[in-house]
Amino acid sequence: MSNATYAAAGVDTHAGDLAVSLMKKAVSATHGPEVLGGFGGFAGLYDVSFLTSYTRPLLATSTDGVGTKVAIAQALDKHDTIGQDLVGMVVDDIIVVGARPLFMTDYIACGKVVPERIASIVEGIAKACAATGTALVGGETAEHPGLLGPDDYDVAGAATGVVEADQVLGAERVQSGDVVIAMASSGLHSNGFSLVRHILAQKGIGYTDTSAELGGVVGEALLEPTRLYTGPLLSVLSDPELAGVVHSLSHVTGGGIAANLARVLPVGSWVEVDRSTWSPAPVFRVLGDMAGTTLESAEGTWNLGVGMFAVVAANAASSVIARLKSEGIPSWVAGRVSMAPHDLTGFEQGAKGVNGGAVRLVGSYAE
């Protein structure tokens, strides 16, 4: 007798329902009066009546995932930080254009729905959404037996924000003499983990092994969640006393330090980022030592301690740094924009299809 049922095929709809029930409180906590229709609908509804107060509102959107960092979360069976990584990768791209994030949706694909695991992931997403003022208005958990292993999953998300047209940040605002402010990262964030995993595999080091240099379990050090910059940057951008002083922002993700900064600089400009202005966190140094390479060789892969750049008017740099520090973001001057003729040999010039400015890192990292 055939047992041709969805459950027999490996899909447990009851487990999915339980996962939704477990995450409901955390998700609902991100909802303000703009979110309509409650929890669990086919589509999320968001009231944008307030946009009538804008002269020319522009919607900004971004989508991303966490990448192979999820493999470490799975190995440690620790899933409460991956959600913050997802929000950081998505929402902190929206703030780069000066937009305020409004709402986000998430997507989790897994081999088997384990309700507590799915709820832990989504609770992490919801907490980070709340910290950035973003409503989590919907999502999907898809069970893919046979395609993914029972303990395998991947996460992705998309968000939408809004910015007044005449307040969009970008390379066209940048001027010669502007100061480049670096904002500290919390660690690896969510980029370059294929290299991390390769280095550990080559050395025969497991995620559950302990490391004195990393201060404990290797995997736990690697899972340090991505720092969220949206809230502090919104505080800067909305301050009337700092109006117009931030000209462009760069989120240091895939591609590394120089390439991402070059994307938000105008053609003809150049910046030398001074490595001596910061000291990369131990996690970068330990991994570099394991690989037998220099920190400089990883500048196109890891953030090495800088998660975001702001290009600001020179006379406002100290005020912006002070505000960021008061919001919990260590920041410092790392370079200055120039339009003067210069030999650009060794500079990164634009990236990801953007014909932008030129950037190179100079000097040696502080100890």
Explained architecture:
The protein is α+β, with helices and mostly antiparallel strands. It has 2 domains: 155 residues, 60s Ribosomal Protein L30, Chain: A; 192 residues, Phosphoribosyl-aminoimidazole Synthetase, Chain A, domain 2 (Alpha-Beta Complex), CATH 3.90.650.10. It contains 10 helices and 15 strands. The strands form 4 sheets. It has a 7-stranded mixed beta sheet. A 4-stranded mixed beta sheet has the order 3-6-4-5, with helices on one face. The longest helix is centred in the middle third of the chain and has 17 residues. The radius of gyration is 22 Å and the shape is globular. The mean pLDDT is 93.
Q: Which features does this protein show?
A:
367 residues; alpha+beta; 60s Ribosomal Protein L30, Chain: A; Phosphoribosyl-aminoimidazole Synthetase, Chain A, domain 2; 2 domains; 7-stranded mixed sheet; 4-stranded mixed sheet; 10 helices; 15 strands; globular; nucleotide-binding
The top level CATH class name of the largest domain: Alpha Beta
Share of helix, binned: 25-40%
CATH topology of the largest domain: Phosphoribosyl-aminoimidazole Synthetase, Chain A, domain 2
Q: Supply the number of structural domains.
A: 2
Oligomer: single chain
Radius of gyration: 22 Å
CATH architecture of the largest domain: Alpha-Beta Complex
CATH superfamily of the largest domain: PurM-like C-terminal domain
- Runs in which pLDDT lies below 50 for 5 or more consecutive residues are none
Strand element count? 15
Task: Provide the succession of SSEs.
Answer: HEEEHHEHEEEHEEHHEHEHEHEEE
Major sheet details: 7 strands, mixed
Strand content: 25-35%
Structural class: alpha+beta
Strand order of the largest sheet: 10-12-7-13-11-15-14
Shape: globular
The helix count comes to 10
Mean pLDDT across all amino acids: 93
Cα(first) to Cα(last) distance is 70 Å
